[in-house]
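Hi C.,

You asked whether I'd gotten around to modeling the 120-residue construct. I have! Everything is below, sequence then structure, no commentary in between.
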Amino acid sequence: MDTTIDLTDSPVRATFPVPSNSPSPPSSPGSEPPLPSSQLTSSPPSSASLNLSTSSASLKCPVCLETFHAIRHRGSRLASTICGHVFCGRCLPDCVRTSGQCPTCRRKLGYQDFHPLYLY
């Protein structure tokens, strides 16, 4: 199956060196041996990962572009689809009613395919 995953807006993950005294995971036949810790790259954590409250406040409903914090502040709920995408509780039912698809990945959805999400 050919599947494309768009990681354009995904956060960058830092890789950290493995201590030399820790056991290495077993390798499978034909796989490359792990790099020594001296060859692993380490980048400092990004400012977005350091301040989680700021990054979570910038998360938005992809339909109405309102922040999740503002949605919860007005008393509305968030909703998650079975494909894992999160929307405000106003937009998602409207999108399912009009198109029958997830607005993000276009997976076919029905009213039974999403549920309230309790994050805050």
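If it helps when you're writing up: The first strand starts at residue 78 and ends at 81.

Thanks,
B.
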